[in-house]
Fold:
Amino acid sequence: MTGIERYVVPASLEQAVECLQQLGEVTILAGGTDLMPQSQAGRLKIKRTLMNIRRIPELKGIALDGDVIRIGALTTISEIMRNDLVKKHLPVLAEACDHFASDQIRNAGTLGGNICNASPAGDTLVPLIVLDAEVELASKPDGKVYQRTMPLAEYFVGPGKTRRAPAELLTGVRIPLPPAGHVARFFKFGTRPALDISAISIGIAGILNQGVMTNVRVAFGAVAPTPVRALHTEEALEGKRLDAATIESVANVARDEVKPIDDIRATAWYRKEMIHNMTKRMLDHVAQA
Amino acid sequence: MNVAEKTKTIQPDSLIGKRIPKMDAPEKASGKTRYIHDIDLPGQLHGKILRSARVHARIRSIDTSAARALPGVHVVITAADIPDQRPIGVAKDHLPLKRDRVRSQRDEIAAVAAESEEIALQALKLIKVEYEDLPIISDPTEAIKPGAPLIHPEPHGADGSHEHLKQGMPVAYAGKPDNIAMRFDYGHGDVAQGEAESDVVIEDTFKLHYVTHCCMGVSGIIAEFDASGNLLMYSNTQVPFLHKREFAEYLNMDPSRIRIIQPPIGGGFGSKLDIYPFEVICVFLARAAKRPVKMVFSREEEFLASPTRQPVLLTLRSGCRKDGTLTFRQVHTLHDNGAYTSWGATTPFVMMQTFSSLYRVPHCDYHTTAVYTNNPYAGSFRGYGNLQATFAIEAHMDKLAEAIGMDPLDFRLKNAQEKGEVTGQGMSFKSCGFKECLTTAASRSDFRRKHRENIRNRNTPDPVKRGIGIASMLHVGGGAKIYPSDGCGTILKLDDFAHVTLITGASEIGQGSETVLSQLVCEELGLPISAVTVVNNDTDITPWDVGVHASRTTFIAGNSAIGAAKKAKAKILAAAAKKFECPEADLDLRGGFIIKAASGEPLIDLARLMRNLHFTEKAELVMTTFYYEPPSKHQDKGFKGDVSAAYAWATQVVEVEVDTETGIVRMTRVTGAHDVGRVLNRLGIEGQIEGGVVMGQGYALTEDLTIENGVMRNPNFRDYKLVTAPEIPEMDISFIESMDGEGPQGAKGVGEAPAICIAAATANAIYNATGVRIYGLPFTPERVYRALHGKAEKPYWKPWKPE
Structure:
């Protein structure tokens, strides 16, 4: 009963981007954990071509590339959670993966899929943003494969919408190795400890030196149409001594900075309260650590 | 048996109280159980239902021509195709296929039988319906106001004149002059006198929400007519014998031509006590298509079109004296009936028992009005109104105790019922372990000390506050005589190899009845549990039973099974006495042998004795029957009478951690003490109580079927939140064995009990932790956080009953 006319399974990145260039209307399938329920529920229509990208070797694996950790788009949430490089250098990402849906979904769902689904509540997005992650996009507009990168914080346009062009494929994520003294925290607030969609999420990162935070990154999930970097909150924290007065004022800035909506999971008022209370709690923990 | 043959004696042994794995567990655990989803009949078609796109509307027109023309479609039906359809349900206010009006989002408009589910679904999309919207009433307090639009208006002619229909017509034809679906009024004593004698009087309104059963196995049916016009249904019903009769009425058939077979049922919890439109519609489809038709819900449909627990607005006024004696209770409830009437409207039967009889109260006045709205309609659900009643009553037990400065446990003990009492409602407590439940649960949880300490710690800087709360329940434990008979029949046979076939009217819905009934039979016959096959799912084979409800199966079907087994035993011992030329009283059955009762010395293998009986000139088989009818009473018109043969009691203590910065309530520990009469299968009863506690936890903390203006917002497991494994608290369960004189081996029913007190005890625990009482459920983080910050509106409903 679907309108799918063609199913393609490219074996290489080049084949994949060539298909995208030539066929135009393509829906990309990786883990399928968002695509299948959304299309079954009628919220997403699968286009004329369905492209399964799971056999593309260039999209797989986690590797150190100089001072950058590259995670291929097809890496599953379970693989990230268990990976030694991630656990050593990016523990906050492993922690976020531990709060991600259920084992079954983590085993199938991919990092690229979580990013391209572009949910404001996507669990890996907030930690990746505070880790200064960049996305890699490949395309083949004129017979040659091109790659470009873009900060993840700029990638999202709205719910389900990104800056990826229709002929581009997201191939992976590049995360700079965090420097010495780097701290990063993630908090996911749902109504139960497992199998939940965030009512809000918070990522905070920076370099902590003798009680002072610099290079501050703060991002929030589920308080706007996309995951967002909170620039005012970052500014309020940047270069400040992490004492009780700073923490309270940063939490207040955070509450004022977000503009959430009411939905079935929470009201806007409650989301703002949680942004305040949990930003404060996270910074208290950083200060005490 | 060879081993035993060599031993000189067989020691007495008992199956009662042992940990016996459920007989259906290996099949279920290995994925071999064939649920209705797994059954496919030759020539079978697949049925699907088109439901309303509107909440409340007139149906202007229905065009099924494109659907009928779709290849693979056999039958498309609407109300116009079934001129003889009759209203169904508890109040006969519900036509399976709607004619001129839809009253809720779930309403059935048309149905299709096609060669595959995909084709049937595609056909539904081709059906065009024109609606004319009507005003939506989704607030029951609006629905009772004079002049409110009517959900079931009396029919009027085109010129507006009233069309007079015959007296006594069902609501679905005659309509109603107001939105009141059902009323219950009960009283004993004089509440005015009770209030005058009170030192403290309090009044509060409680708001109880929508939840639904969430059976793992979704609803389904297969209907088939044979060449002679006999109807066979594969159905998940909990009440096959009542349904046989009811279906006959709805289908204008002779009941004796209807047969119901129940495949293994993937969860009931009360949801399968009523006949729903999909079942009748599936029979219509099978009749029209002349083929078997199978209809199985999707999960979303299961949410949308299944009954819910009854949402209730309840105003309770209670009083006591300074010495802690309860003086009176006055209760007014407004039940949101939804668009049609199912068993949810009748939950006052149980609710009033809790108000009148859980604690000793000399004056009680109870009123319920169930009112039609355009919301989903409520059915029966484990606990049957008792969760709602207990929530209100136990909040007031804490508040009254605090008002007079009495310890909450002492206050409860002072007013708790005891063995031998007869309540104002006429319930007679022949066994009663209530006080022992209270003291056991309190001492095992260290309730008194923690309760005092938590109050002292409310103002410490730690944002996480600890709380402990107590609540108790009374529920029927020996059936409930709500029909003229509350009985159950058993047929028992032993074959030539002493294998027992236990044919019982009692249905298995996952609660473990097969195992318990087999235990009781084997206990009489001295056989291992492996010696029994249970047949319990075919109305043409099994004897009558009123159905699985009211926590009655162990008690009623258990007594019935014991009765049949005792008759078989008597016959066997008589034959053995003859053979060994000794009095019957000298013999007994043990370990598969006839033994000498005094010494335990085996005389003959039971299987050999059975063959001796069979293969002689006076050939005989051992086949017995028994029908058990409990000594309970049908209540009078004032709802008074000893409705159950025994009553079950329980106390549950809930401990929580409340994060005051998020509103998250973590349930850390549940200490329960249950008066179950006697433990029959320890493994089974533990599982049933643990499952019930978790169901109560979902009601208290996470589950919330959100209905906005008649529309269900969360018909899926993503947004309707069941409790998941990490949230389940540590449990400490004690059994109080009060050895009921009428119960099978002393046992009483326990099916519903464990879910009943959890929300009530949780409310008391949150108050103990924070000093804030929350009057509405569920205790989701945002609701709790708002209450802690003074931003929750306290529900209020002025006590009201129709004149």
